[in-house]
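fwd from M.: "can u put these together and see what the complex looks like"

so here's what she sent:
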Amino acid sequence: MNQLSVADTSAATAGVITYPSPLREFIDSFSNNRGAVAGFCFLVIMVLAAALAPWLAPYDPLMQFRDHMLQPPAWQQGGSAAYLLGTDEAGRDILSRLMHGARLSLVIGFSAVIITLVPGILLGLLAAFFPNTAGRVLMRMADIMMSLPSVLLAIAIMAVLGPGITNAMIAIAVVGLPGYMRIVRASAMSELSKDYVMASRVTGAGVLRLMFFTVLPNCMAPLIVQATLGFSSAILDIAALGFLGLGVQPPAPEWGTMLATARDYITSAWWVVTFPGLTILLTVLAINLVGDGLRDALDPKLKRAA
Amino acid sequence: MFSFILRRLAILIPTFFGITVLTFLLIHMIPGDPVMTMLGERNVDPEMYKSIMARLGLDQPLHIQYLNYLGGLLQGDFGKSFSSQSSVWGEFAALFPATLELGICALLFGTVFGILLGVLAAIKRGTFLDHGVMGLSLTGYSMPIFWWGLMLIMLFSSYLGWTPVSGRISLTYDVQPYTGFMLIDSVIAQIQDPEYNSGAFLDAVMHLILPSVVLGTIPLAVISRMTRSSMLEVMGEDYVRTARAKGLSPRRVIFVHTLRNAMISVVTVIGLQISTLIGGAVLTETIFSWPGIGKWLVDAIFRRDYPVVQNGLLIVAVLIILVNLVVDIVYGVVNPRIRHAK
Amino acid sequence: MSLLNIRNLCVRFGTKDKPFLAVDGVDLTVDQGELLGIVGESGSGKSVSMMAMMGLLDGQGTVTADQMLFDGQELSALTARQKRKIIGKDIAMIFQDPMTALNPSYTVGFQIEEVLKVHIGLDRKARRQRAIELMREVEIPDPERRLSAYPHQLSGGMSQRVAIAMAIACEPRLLIADEPTTALDVTIQAQIMDLLLRLQKERGMALLMITHDLAVVSEVAQRVVVMYAGQVAEMGAVRDVFFEPAHPYTQALIASIPESCRGSRRLSTLPGMVPGQYDRPSGCLLSPRCPIAQERCVRERPELISYGDRAVRCHTPLIPLQEVKS
């Protein structure tokens, strides 16, 4: 073989390699998803409307204007710019009620998710780390809880606890618990079989450390996605409970509760029925779009293959 | 295959007991005294109170009550409704066909259109059609179905007058509940009395359309998404590449090679919709005044009719578990790897 | 006239502003009955280029070429339907992992007979007969019973034989084998290779073998193409390229075979890694790793220059080659 002279090639590699950071990749991926971005913007608007409702809303949501009952929205005949989306059967401004209702829905939904998250994560990790003892029991319990439709279970729990906001929060949290537990368990179990966990074990990491510092961070992606979707289904469940008269009670301006009384006005006042439900739809849709965007951005398998 | 089924059946038993405990505890945590509710909460004669308590077995300690309850269940006694005094099982059996009929129609609607749309979206991936289908599916998934029902009623029943507002059939027809399925019973009624009952079947169909669409919307959304993602996943598999390397036509590649394998996952999803359907039935039946078990259960909860709630929930839960078992078995049959396993 | 003649095949992935050339200007010819080897490491684009030619990339990348002639016909000018008459019949391909290459929901017999039905149109009885014959030809024992077996019931070697049976069912003129033995046990590898060679000789079929196993190529192939990072680095007769390599990469490949390092304590390697999407040099793609890279190499991309039967893409080939304009 000929001996080859070695030339200086270090200049060739200078300034060539630039891998984008994970955060950068995530932001890029997420922003490419137009639906997700649109959903995110809508959510920001909704959160702002909710937070600033006491100052931004044109009227007090509970104030009844007896002279303006069932007034149509501004662009229809008989409506006025004073009540942009019209008024309901008690003369209350619908727009203001929707804005204040946003506070209720967003806060309750968010709280419900948070309340579920902590025990859900703990129990899921427990089930994954001790699959033959705690795991079996917990999974059986999860199966039992999931054998009932969530709406039914929520209603039954509300029947036990009685109507009201906090009870609704608790009911929805309990109903969502087995779902999170399952996801964390599945995620953790698949991580547990991976080599890096074995490596940690070999170097002497204790169970608690393994649980929270080694395994859990790698389960975050599906958990975040599930939490987002859980948020949206929490809002739907709150509305359903309100509609049935079990959740937030009238005259509080919860979107579902508004629909309960609106039922009688299908033929006479379409705006009383349409707008609250439309708001629920748009909010939930926005959250789901964001959740989908998160999932696509966080799941490396779906990245465009080279 | 056989052991697969046996194992699944074996898990049923502890699950069944777990559900009985759950429903039992749930009911006994409901505040309010059922005896007082029964007696009308006015001046109650203490003797009468005691005797009713004893009769209902409510004076025993909790675990004894549970054992009594369990014993009764295993003998087929599901208790009597507090308000109507008729057997819970009897009421369930009378009302279940209505929900079943609605559920089947909704599931059919959701499955047929869901698979169709999902396959279309997968084939035309990335196009307007794909995004459109996915957008529609996401919207269907994000809708409060009680609102959706109200909107459809507003449009089709009030404004256009095409469909009726509530119920299963117009009161002008004389239909006997032979099977409990209005579609069948209306045909029977038409045969029995062609003159009086002419158009009964069509009327029954018209009554079913809107509720089925409303109830079937979420299954439609879920199934179309699942079909699409399952199709896309299978389309990326090596054996689909082999099929194309064999020079097979795109139609053959899709319908013979891809769909068959994609359906394996979709079947599971279809089966899991049963739970969604029953939950959705609660809301749908309320809106359309559909006399099924969803409405029955909700009314019972409001009335504090313990036996109905307790045993009704139990029956529903067992039903769902049985259906899930059947789905598991069907999945095992459909997936050749499991079918041939020892 | 050569059976397959490809000029300047390019496959582009990624987005418009961030394109990734997985295959960059590949030229290739295969003659009737010839055995051509394509060698290169993972990521060199050897599989992608052949799948692109067959039209198997399914819209994932953009395929362009100056020329893709098969048996005189320009492949890119054919309609999809016309192309499907050739793929699977005159040109066939077998893939690397036999365990995933067969559809798990259908029997092996069904999948073999399918090709016969679609391309030749035999009736059911004739198909079954022919399928059994084919299975016998690829040395599957007890073929009558195996017809109704499902792929997961077969071993890797057996599955690959089935894949070969499917591929040769319609007497193709060209068989492309994409790393056909990589996923198999060593003892089975030899059997499958022997089978492929025997089939090639008996049928006068051209065989295009994609592999990273240089030893196999040097033993059985007439000509070889060496690929690196999506480009053809060198090609020519096996004896010329392997015993007197002109391209530094070819030499490094040969030197990295354990047998070449007998006596020394360390295996010979090239420092660095194959460039991926984000770190492609603006000059010669090998220049960051090349032991004889000059200043010109870092600056300027070399063209693939033909010297008669041989071609090299290098500014400083290892042996002086007569410039023959071809």
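replying to her w this: DSSP finds 14 helices and no strands in chain B.
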